[in-house]
Amino acid sequence: MNAPETPRPPAAMADVQGLADTRRLAINKVGIKAIRHPVKVLDRSGGVQHTIAMFNMYVGLPHNFKGTHMSRFVEILNSHEREISVENFPAMLREMVDRLEAETGHIEMSFPYFINKAAPVSGVQSLMDYDVTLTGEIAHGRIESTIRVAVPVTSLCPCSKEISERGAHNQRSQVTVTVLINQHLWIEELVQFVEGEASCELYGLLKRPDEKYVTERAYDNPKFVEDMVRDVAARLNGERRIDAYVIESENFESIHNHSAYALIENDKRLPGST
Questions:
Q1: Domain 28-267 classified CATH 3.20.110.10?
Q2: Which of 50, 95, 244, 254 shows its CA 20 to 30 Å from the CA of 19?
């Protein structure tokens, strides 16, 4: 009986991504998109929210590289297991550009964030959810971080109130704020900046006395979509932790077959900005 053959070591597999590219065209962003992973988010009360985030992860690719190593992005996520958090977001950015041998990198982390709110009259507690996106960009070792929060609110039309004998048309609106920060800013603070400038804020649960309050509050505080973005911008102009912002407001009109929309953006680092 013949002895079994000794297995031969596998031949080295070709690294196609590592080949040189001769087209001399660098790529601004290449990587993976829309991958879900568990994360932890610290809230202002000192608690921790466990949630699922959607990640987009990219690096810049030099002109002489044919491709990037896609598997390394997933390895970075999995190496942290459940320890990914807002606090170690910058460290993950640095790890990504180191592992991918890149000079620039970009990570987006989108997740639902919950805030416990008390109704204005009854005080009954309920949760409100907000869509949040944290974005980190690194270029030559320097990191910039932005927070994007979509805040649902109530708006009531000043014109409708002025011309009507009874009532005024009102609707749910969404104010989306994207801010470039220079130091820590709580998500709750950003939400409060927006809700404080709406006709009225929203609540997850209201009793009848609360419904009366929010209805009358909105009626006494009418806002055009233009008013919403201007009033929020005025708040952000006075916040030193914010270097730049984009504010968008969309009213889902209750009596029209369209939405009303306004946008203000400002980079406070530029000369002449407010």
A1: no
A2: 95
